[in-house]
Amino acid sequence: MAHTDLKAGSGETLDAKLALLKSRLEALKSVAVAFSGDVDSTLLLKVAHDTLGNSAFAITAKAPMVPAREIEETRAFCEAEGIRHVIVEPNVFDIEGFANNPPDRCYLCKREILSCLFEAARANGALAVVEGSNLDDDADFRPGSKAVAELGAASPLKEAGLDKDSVRALARRFGLKVWDKPAYACLATRFPYGERLTEEKLSKVEHAEYALHDEGFIQARVRMQGDAARIEVPPADIARLAKPDVRGRITEKLHALGFTFVSADLDGYRKGSMNETL
Questions:
Q1: Per-residue pLDDT tens for 233-252?
Q2: pLDDT at 119
Q3: What is the four-CA torsion angle of 185, 98, 275, 203, rounded to 10 degrees?
Q4: Which domains occur in the chain, in start order?
């Protein structure tokens, strides 16, 4: 799989960080975990529920920039683990400025969604909202982290000194099948800053990426610029993407979705490529 070479330190170091994570959660007494289904929030939810029992539950935001498959994965995980799952549906297009897709779009969106999560957390008896940022997240351009700080959501993984490799190592230890799940970012990140966002555009990109996933390209992005789709896959996968049969199936599906032009980015997938214009 994609992340078999983990460099998370010794088992003793991981044990110490896990103990610190549990201690932090115990101090919070009851928590609502902002749960998106990625490896970070899944590990956090698992440890929180193991530590606090029914005093820990999941809250997931269902919104147009979150693929439906991701929401279904959160439902399935909580059902399998016997964890209470609350789903909120914030209307992100009611957020002033969001649809204009400014560079601080993530902040505007995160603040609104977290506000909804806090409201739902209080209504369901939680004393705190926790979210899954890890130490490595500080190295990327993340305007949403400002909203986390302003609203007072706790980041126990970061507080316990866990970086992404440590998170994956612990998730693997717990037998979580998402331990090597590729990093995910909301669908709004597929558009250049300043290009107006609509539910139709977000859905178009969502289904274009399904076409790639269904062909086995798990780490993939479809960046939309006007009526053109720019596909990013890891450099090692570009040759497979270009195979006539694979290319034919994907372009057929993307043209059917309404993309006039379909191209492959020869630089390959890289995290936050739309930030390169900033």
A1: 999 999 999 999 999 999 99
A2: 96
A3: 50
A4: 11-173 (3.40.50.620), 187-277 (3.30.70)
Question: Using one digit for the tens of pLDDT, what is the confidence trace for 163-196?
Answer: 999 999 999 999 999 999 998 889 999 999 999 9
Reported pTM: 0.89
